[in-house]
Write a structure and sequence with these properties.
This protein is of the alpha/beta class and 246 residues long. Helices cover 40% and strands 22% of the residues. It is elongated and about 55 Å long. The two termini are 32 Å apart.
Length: 246
């Protein structure tokens, strides 16, 4: 998973980063709220770990901006020195999902993050997942479409599964590259585009099959579920109908 952490204390931020990487996640650290807000406009993350008291903006203000301006359901965990019940109520009312009091206890942080991720992304913790005609067998790392096996290379399978597990989310190019290729330099931009083009063809990702894979210029890609019944009820001659891009 791709996690963002904001804390203006470098030692606390390093502890969070080290803990997250220790349980297999990519963690991007921020010491300034304005830098995080800039990246949230351009990138995607799976979870945010957030301090409350920051130099230029408060944690609750950041949470409200994420919920209202970005309209994002990004899971958010407060890790803060605030410990009064009123603080917890304020943080959760602002839109946070959980609240943890410092000093950071590594075991508790791991447990809370795992619980939030299980609730937010349940399909990523199952042995088999089914999306319409697309049936992923996670243990054997195979994919069947309408009962027929689809031959996919390793990266293609990883990318396809990640897209379906995040249906409806705009995933930044950086997020996709990290999820499939890792943090290394082995995933140039064109490689990602090539893989996306192959998946469109191999999986027949088009509205008449219930899913549409689209590129969002300058940001990334989104896999969307399409209501096939509504699509079929639309007059074929209607201007701008989805049948024009099927």
């Amino acid at each position: 998973m791709r996690i963002a952490a904001l804390d203006d204390e470098p030692s606390q931020l390093e502890l969070i980063r080290h803990t997250m990487e220790g349980i297999g996640h990519e963690c991007h650290g921020y010491t300034e709220g304005k830098t995080l807000l800039r990246d949230l406009r351009q990138q995607s993350f799976d979870l945010l770990i957030l301090d409350w008291t920051l130099p230029e903006v408060s944690g609750p203000t950041i949470v409200k901006w994420i919920r209202q301006d970005l309209a994002s359901r990004l899971p958010i965990l407060f890790v803060t020195n605030r410990r009064e019940e009123a603080d917890m109520v304020e943080g959760l009312s602002a839109g946070a999902d959980d609240f943890m009091v410092k000093p950071i206890r590594v075991g508790e942080l791991e447990a809370r993050v795992k619980a939030l991720l299980r609730r937010a992304y349940p399909s990523q913790h199952e042995a088999e997942v089914l999306f319409g005609p697309y049936h992923f067998h996670l243990n054997s790392r195979t994919l069947h479409v309408n009962g027929a096996p689809i031959e996919l290379k390793h990266r293609e399978y990883e990318l396809a599964l990640f897209l379906f597990q995040n249906i409806g989310r705009l995933l930044s190019r950086e997020h996709l590259r990290e999820a499939v290729w890792g943090m290394g330099p082995d995933a140039p931009s064109r490689s990602l585009d090539t893989h996306m083009s192959r998946l469109r063809t191999k999986l027949d990702l088009r509205p008449s099959n219930g899913f549409l894979l689209s590129a969002v210029y300058g940001l990334g890609y989104r896999l969307e579920a399409i209501d096939v019944d509504s699509l079929n009820s639309m007059p074929s001659s209607q201007p701008g109908s989805l049948s024009a891009i099927a």
